[in-house]
Design a protein that fits this description.
This protein is 53% helix and 17% strand. It is built from 15 helices and 10 strands. Pfam families: Diacid_rec, GGDEF_2, HTH_30.
Length: 377
């Protein structure tokens, strides 16, 4: 049973007195005034309220009776009923004959306010339970009891899913960041599918364990997240990024998918800061290099290129050459240079590094060293 708290009592008083010009009192089960338009009466005992609770009926107090009952004034007092039990009393101050017609309406308003508060509390409690489920799952602390508890909430933890990590970047202060995160969480819970699990994992990060079947593709998920990021960016003063882990069908693999999403975000923001979405599978090699402690001279060939290439033209040429899969005409077109100029640059890269970009094995070496250099820098 939801208790009639001071906060709810004050809410009842404020809502009612915006409509009614008479003072409103709300008393708890002990007959103590916990909400009132007359602040000096707060905390005082109201004898008529206790009588209402005992007799479960409306009690009218006239001028004469008010002198006989401690803490009372002329008015009418009615029981507040929640889940078929009396949880308190609402009173209207004034001559009973003047305010009698308002009694049932005020009682109904008080009970509706209490029901609304109870529903809000229940929804908040369910959201906290859902977030706890996410933490247990991504930390691989699952068992049959957790699966049963989730099932009672209408959640099938054995549904195939994929971890999506959202990251918010802003210069706002901590208080404003907390507000943005809460607003974003509320939006996401309405945006996501019913069986998706959403939780805040850090001040600026939110994880979604998204339902993901074998018939779906990473490409379709990518497009949906792309649209989601636009909405989140529009709703907040900052920039959003996302990373995607690997799909999982076994619950014990959820932690790995979440970890992959974290690694993709960490590495992706270093290598491709201009991007907004990072996919683990696309960054597998880079993540592998990032996870291992490499020798200081691991990128010595690419490092020599950086040292010689003050303008950055050769580094850009190599990067474009790799992105264009070695198609010379496409590389030249993207760089707005003549093919002869491109050939000259590739030859110069070979001379400086000792690795020929036109040779697949040498190109692979340069590509790996390029990634490692950026990660080490």
């Amino acid at each position: 049973m939801t208790m009639l708290t001071k906060a709810i009592a004050e809410d009842i008083v404020n809502r009612t007195m915006r409509i009614l010009t008479h003072n409103i009192n709300v008393m708890d089960q002990d007959g103590v005034i916990i909400g009132s338009g007359e602040k000096d009466r707060l905390g005082h005992f109201h004898a008529a309220a206790l009588q209402v609770i005992r007799e479960n009926k409306r009690i009218d107090i006239d001028h004469v009776k008010s002198k006989q009952l401690p803490g009372t004034k002329p008015g009418i007092n009615l029981p507040i009923v929640f889940e078929k039990k009396i949880v308190g009393v609402v009173g209207i101050t004034g001559r009973p004959e003047d305010i009698s017609q308002f009694g049932e309406l005020v009682k109904m308003g008080a009970e509706l306010t209490l029901e609304q508060a109870a529903l809000t509390h229940q929804l908040q409690w369910e959201e906290r339970l859902r977030e706890e489920l996410v933490f247990e799952v991504i930390n691989d602390r699952t068992n049959d009891l957790l699966i049963e508890r989730a099932a009672r909430m209408g959640i099938d933890l054995r549904t195939p899913r994929i971890a999506v990590l959202l990251h918010f970047m802003s210069d706002e202060n901590e208080r404003e960041l907390a507000k943005i995160k809460q607003d974003s969480l509320t939006y996401l819970k309405n945006y996501c599918d019913t069986n998706d699990l959403v939780a805040s994992v850090q001040t600026t990060k939110i994880v979604i364990l998204k339902q993901f079947s074998e018939s779906q593709s990473i490409e379709s998920l990518y497009k949906r997240i792309e649209a989601l990021l636009k909405q989140l960016t529009f709703r907040s003063n900052g920039q959003w990024q996302a990373s995607i882990g690997n799909p999982f069908s076994e619950l014990e693999d959820a932690k790995r998918s979440y970890q992959y999403a974290r690694e993709a975000l960490a590495v992706g923001t270093i290598l491709y800061p201009e991007n907004t979405i990072y996919v683990y599978d696309d960054l597998y090699l880079s993540i592998l290099l990032h996870a291992n402690r490499l020798p200081a001279d691991f990128s010595k060939h690419y490092h020599s290129l950086v040292m010689e290439d003050q303008s950055g033209d050769l580094q850009t040429t190599l990067e474009t050459y790799i992105d264009s899969q070695g198609e010379l005409s496409r590389v030249a077109e993207r760089l707005f240079i003549h093919r002869n100029t491109l050939s000259y640059r590739l030859e110069k890269i070979k001379r400086i590094t000792g690795k020929d970009p036109r040779n697949i094995h040498d190109l692979l070496n340069l590509y790996i060293e390029q990634i490692a250099y950026k990660l080490q820098s």
